[in-house]
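Q: Here's a chain of 181 amino acids. Please give me its 3D structure as tokens.
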Amino acid sequence: MASEKDPLVSERSGTVREVGNHAIWSLSSCKPGFGIDQLRDDCMDTYWQSDGQLPHLVNIQFQRKTMVSHIYIYTDYKLDESYTPSRISLRAGTHFNDLQEIEVIELIEPSGWEMIPIKDIHDRPIRTYMIQIAVLSNHQNGRDTHMRQIKIHSPCEPTSFDLNKLRNFSTVQFQQYSTIR
């Protein structure tokens, strides 16, 4: 079960790729030295710490419409206690003014990666210009929040071409090109 929640396992399998580096990231607030760089540094010992009123927002804006299948969020209740998010809203749209809520998740003392599938009404990954992650509440009614890492996954296009699909040519002209010498 832990391997399903580890984003690196999916990335190494070649079925998805991390597309967060193709986006522009912004935060509603942060303490100095605890911002986007720490949220995206692949180190579980660093974190983003908000500094202000709820909800705390992470805005992820892509320069072109991007397919998103999963969002992974790393939190650790044992280390962060009241700073740990307990309720998160995921929103998507083309810009700040048309965001639609696509998922609300409840976290109960999370420790590690939380995988959140992002699907449309037809159970397919969404195509979007913007994702917003909103922390609506924290454990123990905490005011500020800690998030240690966020990963955004997009499904990979198949890179290999199935040559068996080419073997069913019906004319002689096409069949003469069906094999490579």
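Q: Can you summarize the key feature?
A: The mean pLDDT is 90.
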